[in-house]
Design brief:
Elements: H1 2-33, E1 56-65, E2 76-84, H2 87-95, H3 97-109, H4 113-117, H5 119-137, E3 142-152
Antiparallel strand pairs: 1-2, 2-3
Helix pairs in contact: 3-5
């Protein structure tokens, strides 16, 4: 009887320890993967939000890439909102959708899983996207980059 009671106590202690480890150490890392805003801005027929004071938003949706070093076993699904200087830039982006998507796919797929889950790296990625798109489109065309959907599997 003492053996059964001891066994039950040991199992309960192990279950409690496992719960602690998962909730304190493993769960916060997984939650960080999908921490970006869930609601995309409202769009007109051209994929822009004309109600923003700082500019219009051009959406690049449904980007799907394999991170570097995963051999195709992991993927990132993302939608990116580009805040632009004005409607002329929206028209320019619409005319260059393929080069813009290619540039974004190149940048996202060049990162490792660790870089894609690190918030500091994500901020640096925003800066790189802004810089490279401004080289493609012209200076000061892209004002900000927003990760609207960001799911790493």
């Amino acid at each position: 009887m003492k053996t059964i009671i001891t066994l039950v106590v040991v199992v309960l202690v192990m279950a409690g320890a496992a719960f602690f480890v998962v909730s304190k150490f493993l769960a916060p890392q997984e939650a960080a993967v999908a921490e970006e805003p869930a609601e995309p801005p409202a769009h007109d027929k051209h994929g822009s939000d004309t109600g923003k004071a700082g500019g219009e938003i051009f959406m690049v949706e449904e980007l799907l890439v394999n991170p570097t070093g995963t051999s195709g076993t992991r993927f990132l699904s993302a939608s990116i909102g580009l805040e632009v200087a004005g409607h002329e830039t929206v028209v320019q982006l619409e005319g260059q959708q393929m080069p813009v998507r290619d540039l974004l796919i190149t940048i996202l797929s060049s990162r490792t899983v660790e870089q894609l889950t690190n918030t500091t790296e994500r901020e640096m990625m925003r800066g790189e996207i802004t810089e490279r798109l401004n080289k493609l489109l012209g200076p000061d065309k892209i004002l900000a980059v927003y990760f609207v959907d960001y799911v790493l599997q």
